[in-house]
Specification:
The protein is an all-alpha fold. It has a domain of 217 residues. The chain has 20 helices and 2 strands. A two-stranded antiparallel ribbon has the order 1-2. Helix 9 runs antiparallel to helix 13. The two termini are 33 Å apart. The model has no long low-confidence stretch (mean pLDDT 88).
Length: 490
């Protein structure tokens, strides 16, 4: 029964290919298409949950060459990412039933959506570096059509930019993997790292290997939007359909985070880079990105692009916690992986619902909107409070751990500069999100008649908003689970 690990990958991929290759006439009835997509998502989610919480932990696919085998393996870190992926993708799909009714090429969208789900599950279930890298590359290829879905000139250029940045980052990482293979067992992930430190020291290649590790972090950091290779993200989000934006911001960018975690903590080992220039530069780049992303979001006037810059900032909250190389900081990072996925998906779905219902795309146009859509704007407000980090929402929990992790580590100026930067970023976040809510309820409304989005769009938004509050009120089970993961890595 070890093949159960293969099912959450193969089934969505087959479903996606089926939609892409089937004739348009088969789905001329939209109700039939939506029912079929919903049923397939439920089936895929059930298969994923069975694999995630089952007893089977490993399945060998096949050997590429002698000594390099593609392996699927599920551990607690993979379970965490897989559960978040399944939850968010299911809710975003439900929202898309209302949103995509206003878009063309709906069948194609759902085809690539299922392909993305299968590939992301493969990335979460990867058991070694080679398997992870292949699914990482596939992730770019199957999400690229979602970015350019509308087919406009802006969408095509944004899609090509996304493709260029992603491939450049992936090739940087691949270059690092080539050289790392001599000193580390890339055929299996090992908690704490498999790098042979004695061999590196004996060959006098410590300096060179640090450069290699930095290439790995920078390469996979492209997908996570780390400065200076972050520009694809605010370009891609505004042109993609709102469900695709929620998927990119909530889940796909976390693929870069997962790859960095695997390489640093399961292959290289935190001890190898702790106290070196690699850690210092990594910390510096993450803090620069946190501040820069928030500042650019504060200045941005296009609603979805503002949220995209916010993603750039918040992804580097996660990278900052990882760069601290201590259990508390990493606990904060993994908590933020979960909370940010839920919060930012909620915010992008709110933006999509506003665009579909009113056609408004700029922040200045949202004045008085809370009188027309009070439920939607209250959901937006709760998600905004969570992203800022105001109790009792979930965001405060992850940011607390990140600040404590920085102060415990006592790295030069980072122990105080890190929390200060996070605080300034939180204030900027309040500055670019709260005025939207305040003006929507207090500003003059051009239309006072209540007109909430369709229930199929509003329900997943409400569920995500409620989750942001519940996870802030009851974080203990998740914190305990994540603490168990981090304890064995450092």
């Amino acid at each position: 029964m070890s093949e159960i690990l293969l099912l959450p990958i193969v089934l969505p991929v087959c479903v996606g290919l089926g939609y892409l290759l089937s004739p348009e006439t088969w789905f001329s009835n939209r109700k039939r298409l939506v029912c079929g997509v919903g049923a397939m998502m439920i089936l895929c989610a059930i298969c994923s949950l069975v694999a995630i919480f089952g007893t089977v932990e490993e399945y060998q696919l096949f050997s590429l060459v002698q000594g390099i085998t593609l392996i699927l393996h599920i551990d607690d870190l993979g379970r965490l990412f897989a559960v978040v992926t399944t939850l968010v993708m299911a809710l975003v799909l439900l929202f898309s039933f209302g949103y995509m009714a206003h878009e063309e090429h709906e069948k194609r969208f759902y085809g690539f959506y299922f392909l993305t789900y299968g590939v992301l599950m493969g990335l979460d279930f990867s058991g070694n570096v080679v398997t992870m890298y292949l699914f990482y590359e596939f992730m770019t290829l199957v999400t690229f059509p979602l970015v350019l879905h509308t087919g406009t000139k802006e969408a095509i250029m944004a899609g090509l930019k996304y493709l260029f940045y992603s491939f450049c980052g992936a090739y940087m990482a691949l270059f690092g993997i080539y050289f790392l293979h001599k000193y580390a067992d890339i055929t299996d992930f090992m908690a704490g790292g498999s790098l042979d430190l004695a061999a590196v020291l004996a060959d006098g290649n410590t300096g060179f290997m640090l450069v290699i590790v930095f290439l790995l972090i920078s390469g996979f950091g492209v997908k996570a939007g780390m400065f200076p290779l972050h520009a694809w993200l605010p370009t891609a989000h505004p042109v993609a359909p709102a469900p695709a934006s929620a998927l990119l911001s909530g889940i796909v960018v976390k693929g870069g985070v997962l790859a960095i975690i695997r390489m640093v903590f399961y292959v290289v080992g935190a001890d190898f880079i702790k106290g070196t220039w690699v850690q210092t530069v990594w910390l510096a780049l993450s803090l620069i990105t946190v501040l820069m992303g928030s500042a650019l979001a504060y200045k941005e006037r296009v609603f979805k692009k503002r949220l995209a810059y916010s993603t750039v900032s918040n992804l580097s909250y996660i990278l900052f916690g990882l760069a601290l190389l201590n259990p508390v900081g990493m606990t904060g990072s993994l908590l933020h992986v979960i909370f940010h996925a839920i919060i930012k998906s909620c915010l992008f779905l709110c933006a999509g619902a506003i665009i579909v219902t009113t056609g408004k795309t700029k922040v200045a146009e949202l004045s008085g909107l809370g009188k027309q859509m009070p439920v939607l704007m209250w959901c937006f407000t709760f998600a905004s409070l969570a992203l800022i980090g105001i109790p009792p929402t979930s965001g405060v929990v992850s940011k607390w751990y990140l600040c404590i992790g920085a102060m415990e580590e006592r790295i030069s100026v980072v122990w105080w500069l890190g929390p200060v930067v996070l605080l300034i970023s939180a204030l900027l976040t309040a500055g670019y999100l709260l005025p939207v809510s305040i003006n929507s309820f207090m500003g003059e409304a051009s239309v006072t008649e209540r007109k909430e989005p369709k229930a199929v769009m509003l329900i997943p938004i409400i569920l995500l908003a409620v989750l942001t509050l519940l996870l802030g009120l009851y974080p203990a089970p998740i914190v305990d689970f994540i603490s168990g993961i981090t304890a064995g890595l450092m």
